[in-house]
Specification:
Structural class: mainly alpha
Shape: globular
Order of helices and strands: HHHHHHHHHHHHHH
Number of helices: 14
Distance between the termini: 21 Å
Strand content: under 5%
């Protein structure tokens, strides 16, 4: 169920990216779309939590535990930072470079687990990780970009893309701990409340939110918030309760694969041989990592250490 939840989240994020690109082509601001998704998510989950405030038992116990405030803030900041820096990197780097750097995040997660928790990933996990990252690079057609001599590298763009990867990895790692403490709904609510505050400050600096004041974009904004923000973030954090962060990071590489397929279906874009090879590698990595299943005692011990 954990793998299914994270896979579903990745597919929904891919749908969101494809649909958002259509809105951006129509003149919408990607910054304001991201802001609106955060605000609607925070508001919707706050209303749901208020209506269900009488529930005192979670999974058969009166409490799950707690997480320090700094960790909740870090979780929310990582959500906002990952979105902002990814789009910012696209303005300075070729899409292939930006996507490839962004999806080094699963590798950063594995490195953190090795250094911080002294976990030793198996050869299967390392193999799956390498296959997934290389697959993402092929999906982005990085070899074509290199062969054509269009490898435009901007130092600031690379720095921003690197920050995006670190933010994504931070979201996975902090989301695991916050999710165990507050549950999927509680953790996503807290994360997006923090994110919303950040976006309010950003928009105050930017000035008039023209996209959000254009009623023609309203249905699209609501769809992005409900179907491609609330649902996938809840699924991803819930999935982290059942699979390790390293495994969730590898499975998240399904997003660029799904995005390529949706672009092929909806936008009539073709799939090159490199992309097909990349798709095969991503699927192979995801398949392999699912064979890495710890015993129940290991899972319980790992959860106890986290909580």
């Amino acid at each position: 169920m954990g793998y299914l939840a994270v896979s579903s989240a990745a597919i929904l994020w891919a749908i969101g990216g494809t649909y958002a690109s259509e809105l951006i082509d129509r003149g919408a601001s990607f910054v304001e779309l991201t802001e609106a998704r955060a605000w609607i998510t925070a508001l919707a989950l706050a209303v749901v939590s208020f209506l269900r405030r009488g529930e005192t038992r979670v999974n058969g116990s009166t409490t799950r535990g707690t997480a320090p405030l700094w960790l909740v803030v870090l979780f929310g900041c990582s959500i906002a930072t990952a979105n902002l820096t990814y789009y910012a990197s696209l303005s300075r780097l070729p899409v292939a470079i930006a996507i490839t750097v962004q999806y080094t995040a699963p590798g950063l997660v594995v490195v953190w687990l090795v250094l911080n928790r002294r976990e030793r990933p198996s050869r299967r996990v390392w193999g799956a990780l390498i296959a997934a990252i290389v697959g993402v690079a092929l999906l982005a057609e990085l070899p074509i970009l290199i062969s054509e001599g269009n490898l435009r590298l901007d130092a600031i763009g690379l720095l921003v893309a690197g920050i995006s990867a670190f933010a994504f990895a931070t979201y996975i790692l902090s989301g695991e701990r916050v999710g165990h403490a507050f549950g999927a709904r509680g953790s996503v609510l807290r994360g997006f409340l923090v994110s919303s505050v950040i976006w309010i400050i950003v928009q105050a600096v930017r000035g008039r939110p023209d996209t959000l004041l254009d009623t023609s974009f309203l249905p699209g904004v609501v769809f992005l918030a409900v179907a491609t923000t609330i649902a996938p973030f809840l699924l991803f954090v819930w999935g982290l309760e059942y699979i390790r962060p390293s495994e969730a990071g590898i499975v998240s590489t399904l997003e660029p694969l799904a995005a390529a397929l949706f672009a092929f279906i909806w936008l009539d874009q073709s799939l090159s041989g490199w992309q097909l090879a990349g798709a095969a590698l991503v699927l192979a990595g995801i398949t392999v990592v699912q064979t890495e299943r710890p015993g129940s005692k290991d899972v319980l011990a790992e959860r106890a250490a986290i909580e």
